[in-house]
Amino acid sequence: MPSNSQNKPLKIAYILLIHKNPATVNALIRQLSNNSNADIYIHIDKKSCNSIASKIFRNEKTIVLNVNIDTRWGDISLVDATINLLRAAVNSGRQYDFVCLKSGQDLMIRDGFENFLAKNRDKIFMNAQRIEKNDKHSYFWKIKWPRYARKQHDSALNPFRILRLALVYLYRLGINVRPNPDVFPMHVHRGSQWFCIPGYVAEYIINFVDKNDWYYNSLKDALAPDEYFFQTIIMNSQYSVNNVCNNLTYIRFGEAGRNRNHPVILKMGDVPEIEKSEKFFARKFDPAVDNSVIDYFMAKFPANQDYPLCE
Q1: Does some domain include residue 192?
Q2: What are the pLDDT digits (tens) for 243-256?
Q3: What CATH number should be reported for the domain holding residue 25?
């Protein structure tokens, strides 16, 4: 339920999905650890767990999940990992004011995030646009997608990518060759998967998922359900009026080729636009592409202390 106290110190649970670049993950952990009332829950992709788990900074603020899911683009596995993170925060008994889902390739780019949330304790920060039943994007959940079509294929000539485009093309002609029989009777809302929500809304999501198996089953073969699974739950609830449709994260999407509609790696040349956005976070960062932009934001928002590697 909404908090009645506006004077209590704000408690935040940051929940992180990570799969690569432990250096960037550690930079983000250091930034987030500056808040003495924040905890950090981490899910490591099963594919990379053995190679990066020992390189992740650990301290009294970090909780690394002991269940590792093989997460893949476009697949329900990203939802599964997020549910596990939400469940860990909700079941911790720590009564968080906010739960914020971030990527391991995010960085904090602006100071004052905790103060901002303290002034907006009951607000939901999530991109969520209502999609009508006949919208051109409704194929995401109205088609029962084969697993090989729910993967990211970089080459435009990849046969599975061509097959996916063919299924979309036919759908838009009114021909659904693989209809999803479990399409749910709710208004679908879609947007970027990243969010920051009040703790009681996180608890509502977990309760909804636990009591409504039909909802999960209706999306388990959908395409990119992480972009509407949580949005649809919230926007069909009593809490929808509190959503400001802003996930507070700067993302620049590619416009052509393999990066089309995917976040591009940010570089030093992007700094003016990043800072002009007045967001609190940005993604994606990759030290193999441009480490100087990571150094820039780490120097701007330095950590209070260093933390040792886990044993």
Answers
A1: yes
A2: 999 999 999 987 66
A3: 3.90.550
